[in-house]
Write a structure and sequence with these properties.
Elements: E1 7-12, H1 15-23, E2 32-35, E3 42-45, H2 47-51, H3 64-70, E4 73-75, H4 79-96, E5 100-104, E6 107-111, H5 122-137, E7 141-146, H6 149-161, E8 168-170, H7 176-185, H8 198-204, H9 210-215, H10 218-225, H11 227-236, E9 254-264, H12 267-287, E10 290-301, E11 313-323, H13 326-340, E12 347-359, H14 371-391
This protein binds a DNA duplex through residues 35-41, 43, 57-62, 64, 77, 103-107, 192-198, 225-228, 251-259, 262, 302-304, 349, 351, 409-410.
Length: 429
DNA sequence: TCTGGGGTCCTAGGACCC
DNA sequence: TCTGGGGTCCTAGGACCC
């Protein structure tokens, strides 16, 4: 019963790019990037593009020459497709182990120590995961197995980068010298939790490799970097500090914002955008059964053009009573917007954040509550959510969000929503 | 012309309490 | 001359993740 924990980290290779390729197999060897919202930056790159030295997050316009030279295909992001593909992968993984944490759109942790033997051990289980995900969804994954999450991340990194693992690495199937050898070979900056700020500071202390970090003194790490780095170090030594989070905790804040396709000056356009984002955020709020007590609204000009006049500001509007009513939240957000809006600026972005969230079921009553209003609001919101679930997002929304939406983001080369729209299904000839 | 959109956790310091 | 000790809460800022 007290077997050493075994975490498996399953991670889809070049996730967004791979999703595109599933439906356009002819692109299997074409260099591809997928762009962020508004067709801004490269957020996913195929191996061919990585080989050309294109880094994560490079603005598309800066790589246009390179793209032309090497025939790089660029896709606008298609989150409807990626979200659906992500759910399909999760379904396959749940079959392998019921103890699963969906960590991000393209990654999941599984606890496998009690089930691995059913597949002939962790390594064999990893192979079968790879095979089945590929066969059932078309997506390539790598699997890393280890006794802590941080080590599983490292094992996954090795499975991806080192051909000898063939996509599956069980760190503790290696001999100790082998394991430490790999650690000595990998930069400390690759460790989960060590980012671009801390890596150079570690280096200054003579901590270069994963092995150096593993062997560092926890006390020293704690005094220089705090408890987080101390934990990273313990995890690297095989002492599990992080647990599997099977149930995603409710969010403490919900944000919705976008850059505009073109800069915007009129209050009317900003109002439409803000109302649109509130619509979406309120939907998420109700989905997790929360209410919020304050709405933050902000506007931004183009921060890459400091020579232009800037009005980058925001304000928080408190609600009379916590609410999940789109109309109440929209009213608050638009009120806030009115107070920060100044004419004569070229706005590039606006957004809202719902904060001070709490569980709807455990609300403090208020002297000023009107129960009848509450019942009406709940009925309207529930009808709205049902309509939108049935007929698609945004089918029913507030009038304030507008009909033209001239400010909406660029998305010039989005592939069809192959798996969620009848009229965009792939056709087999 | 063109530069994403979400989130979380931890720490330090100040205000305040008894 | 000398000026306690223990705590909470909040906020801003910094770091990280995908």
């Amino acid at each position: 019963m007290n077997a050493t924990p075994q975490f498996a980290l399953v991670d889809v290779n070049n996730f967004y790019v791979s999703c595109e390729r599933v439906f356009q197999p002819a692109l299997a060897h074409t260099p591809i990037v997928v762009l962020s919202n508004n067709d801004g930056c490269a957020v996913a790159r195929s191996n061919e593009v990585k080989a050309l030295g294109v880094k994560m997050g490079v603005p598309w316009f800066k790589m246009k020459d390179l793209a032309e030279k090497h025939d790089i295909r660029a896709f606008s992001s298609n989150y409807t497709l990626y979200g659906d593909m992500s759910n399909r992968v999760a379904l396959v993984l749940r079959d392998f182990s019921p103890e699963i944490e969906i960590y991000s759109i393209d990654e999941a942790f599984l606890r496998i120590e009690t089930v691995a033997h059913l597949y002939g051990g962790a390594l064999a289980m990893g192979e079968q995961i790879r095979h089945r995900v590929k066969q059932w969804t078309g997506l390539p994954v790598c699997v890393g197995v280890a006794p802590t999450k941080t080590l599983a991340k490292l094992a996954n990194y090795m499975a991806k980068k080192r051909a000898e693992f063939n996509g599956v690495c069980d760190l503790h199937a290696l001999s100790r010298p082998e394991r430490l050898g790999y650690m000595a070979d990998i930069d400390a900056g690759e460790v989960w939790g060590v980012g671009p700020r801390l890596a150079p500071r570690l280096k200054e202390m003579g901590i270069q490799s994963v092995l150096d970090l593993r062997n560092a003194s926890p006390k020293t790490l704690r005094s220089h970097f705090g408890v987080v780095m101390e934990r990273v170090c313990s995890e690297l030594r095989g002492i599990a500090c992080l647990e599997l989070e099977q149930v995603a905790p409710s969010k403490q804040q919900i944000m919705s914002s976008r850059s505009f396709g073109h800069s915007v000056e009129a209050l009317e356009d900003l109002r439409e955008a803000v109302a649109t984002y509130v619509d979406r955020a309120a939907e998420k709020l109700r989905e997790q059964g929360s209410v919020c007590a304050a709405v933050h609204v902000f506007v931004q000009c183009n921060r890459f053009r400091p020579e232009e006049p800037q009005n980058n500001t925001g304000t928080t509007v408190a609600l009379v009573a916590p609410s999940d009513d789109t109309l109440a939240l929209t009213a608050a957000a638009l009120h806030g917007l009115r107070s920060i809006y100044r004419p004569g600026f070229r706005y590039k972005k606006t957004g809202i954040m719902l904060t001070l969230l709490s569980d709807k079921g455990v609300q403090q009553g208020s002297l000023f509550d009107a129960p009848v209003e509450h019942a009406r609001s709940a009925a309207v919101m529930s009808a709205m959510d049902q309509v939108n679930r049935l007929y698609g997002r945004g089918m029913l929304r507030t009038g304030a969000s507008g009909t033209q939406q001239r400010w909406s983001m660029r998305s010039e080369n989005r592939s069809p929503r192959f798996t969620t729209r009848w009229d965009e299904l792939p056709v087999v000839r």
